[in-house]
Structure prediction request, 216 residues.
Amino acid sequence: MKKMTLMLAALFCGAWLVSAQAENKKNAPELKPLDNWTFFQIGFFPGIPSGTGNSNVYGLKLGAPMVDGYGRVYGIEPSLLYSGTDYVNGIQATWVGPSICKETYGIQAAWFGPTIAKKVYGLQASCAVNVLDDIMGFQPGAVNIAKNVCGFQASVVNVAEKVTGLQASAVNVTKEITGLQFGAVNYSRKNGCQIGAINIIEDGWIPFTLLFNIKY
Prediction:
């Protein structure tokens, strides 16, 4: 019960921070040139101190307990409650709360909280919900939601528009898959290879089957 309460609080915090972050970044200054950088920054709240906004950090950008920005991190961005720098080349991680970015090359992770991104090249992982547009890599979590997956989704529920690779969970849902769905219930609007108790491919030769279905 305590774990569920923490997860719900983290999800609520994530939704609030997404809204606040979008509002704060409407009038964001231009990114600093890459030769203007620092090896360490610490943030206490989104935008506080102001130097965390459009900075380039080669090393450690620490949230104590929160940090964000429209700049870049080449290294590690760990936080207690919220990590939210737009561009991360390395690791972005949060303990109790969300990790939010535009683009990550490496790892975006959250323990009790969601991860939210536009693009991830590498790993996006959470014990709660993972949400993104495009991933090339591995997406494990309780619930995964993506537009385009090139790699592997693994969770209790996977939802994607297009998958090139593997979906594995209790419930897998996609519009189109080039690869394999493995789960109790598999659904694809177009194409796919499915192994599970219930398999549905809308445009398949046999749209509904048990145990196995395929259409390419």
Q: What stands out?
A: Residues 168 and 180 are 8 Å apart (CA to CA). The chain has a mean pLDDT of 90.
